[in-house]
Amino acid sequence: MPVARTRSIALVGLTGSVVEVEADLSSRLPALVIIGLPDAALGEARERVRSAATNAGCPLPSRRLTVNLSPASLPKHGSGFDLAIALACLAAAGTVDRESVERFVHLGELGLDGRLRPTHGILPAVRAAARAGHDRVMVPVANADEARLVPGVEVVGVASLLEAAVRHGGEFDLSACDGLEPVLGDEADPGGPAIGSAVGGDLADVVGNPDAVDALLIAAAGGHHLLMAGPPGAGKTMLASRLPGILPDLSPDAALEVASLRSLAGERISGTLSVRPPFEAPHHTASAAAMVGGGSRGIRPGAAARASHGVLFLDEAPEFPASVLDALRQPLESGEITIHRSSAVATFPARFQLVLAANPCPCGGGETATDMCACPPATRRRYFARMSGPLLDRIDLRLQVNRLTPAMLRMKHTSPHAPVLTSLEARERVVRAQHVAVERYAGTPWRTNAQVPGPWLRGEGGMHPGSVATRALDLALEQGRITMRGYDRVLKVAWTVADLEGASRPNAQHVGRALALRSGLQA
């Protein structure tokens, strides 16, 4: 009999490759053999597929079935090939229609009772199938809404192998699986916090610290990285949690990429695409693999990749291992994370905003007589030096956040109707500023000031503010108080300040303010 074929998807990071699943039936001793570089989980599909087919009521023939996963040189991980293997075997046996099976891309893991279980990475796999020109996919019913987020693809959700076989022309009685409840998995995560929600909070909740609020607006408008240093209780975490709420909505492509990363990380995706930027805040005990991604089998995204198009917040940044912090240096420059393994190379997007919060010393003391810091100067320097110079050089805004005073609190209570900046109002200002930047960079791959390369700012793009405006900045560079990378980043911040104020070009005041924000912790 001719070889039966169908297709599935092998994922390496977010990159998916079409795998042709071939099944051949021969008159030899009964066996199910899988070849084509499967890993351990995929090799165990022999037992899962045979038991699932038998218990579902569509048993495989008692003959030798050889399944080949092509191309054989491509590593294949996980149990998401179960459905494709089972249907290719049934098609080889003539139990289902060969042409119907060959037209679909099949994704899903089988249980021993024949039910299809939710599978990680369905969304990026369906996107890969669509890019390869395949417009029909069959997935577990629990993943159907997630798969339908990809436009232009016909998605068929099935609850069991028997239902899949019937849809492909198999003459079986579906009542055999009436007693089986479909596996729906965990409840889907709705996505990032809404503007001003209880999760992220509203910017109006911030009392005092107007300089910190202004720095937050600049960071949001230009996509700049931010470091906040100050004693415990000064409001650093509160400020960082408000940043996602003042960022604009994601574009459809960015929202789909964020959802794909969450799907690959094992989160269940609802049928509605969240357009709010993600917010990741890993604990300071996180490893380098947890931060940038990795894994002994399938390579999964870390916190930095999951924060792409959003905010990565590292609270108590000096408490993170130096190797974990320094692992972020390359992604901050390139906007992507590349993870090398002996068998594969995976690439994840990493276009995030980094927000660091740090105490000035281990004891966390302040500057008042009652909580004066007791750490020696050498200890303070050593503590802050846990964040390396090359990492800090990539931070655009460095801000000192002071504790609230009783006078600030009294002003809040005695003037409850005083104008305050809400997250919605701040977001409107950020959107206007980003719209100006988008128009300025039309025809280029950049959308925010932080993405523009230094040479373009200094001359190629004609965006240098002029020697008069940059006199103080040029002097800082000449005196060695700032690096060339820092020079470029000050220019980027200056353009953002000008965009927020409605100026057509940065002047000396804008550049001076950007330089002050860059040197805020050095003064």
What's this, in brief?
37% of the residues lie in helices and 16% in strands. With 523 residues, it is α/β, with parallel strands linked by helices.
Overview of the molecule:
With 523 residues, the chain is α/β, with parallel strands linked by helices. It contains 22 helices and 18 strands. The strands form 6 sheets. It has a 5-stranded parallel beta sheet. A 4-stranded mixed beta sheet has the order 1-2-4-3. A hairpin with a 4-residue loop joins strand 15 and strand 16. Helix 8 crosses helix 21, helix 19 packs across helix 21 and helix 21 (484-501) packs across helix 22.
Describe how the helices and strands are arranged:
Layout: E1 4-12, E2 15-26, E3 31-35, H1 40-43, H2 45-56, E4 64-70, H3 82-92, H4 98-103, E5 105-106, E6 109-110, E7 116-117, H5 122-131, E8 136-140, H6 144-147, E9 154-158, H7 161-167, H8 210-222, E10 226-229, H9 236-246, H10 252-264, E11 279-280, H11 288-292, E12 293-294, E13 300-301, H12 303-306, E14 311-314, H13 322-326, H14 329-334, E15 336-340, E16 345-349, E17 353-358, H15 377-384, H16 389-392, E18 397-400, H17 406-414, H18 423-440, H19 454-460, H20 471-478, H21 484-501, H22 508-518
Parallel strand pairs: 3-4, 5-8, 8-9, 10-17, 10-18, 11-14, 14-17
Antiparallel strand pairs: 1-2, 2-4, 6-7, 12-13, 15-16
Helix pairs in contact: 2-3, 8-9, 8-18, 8-21, 18-21, 19-21, 21-22
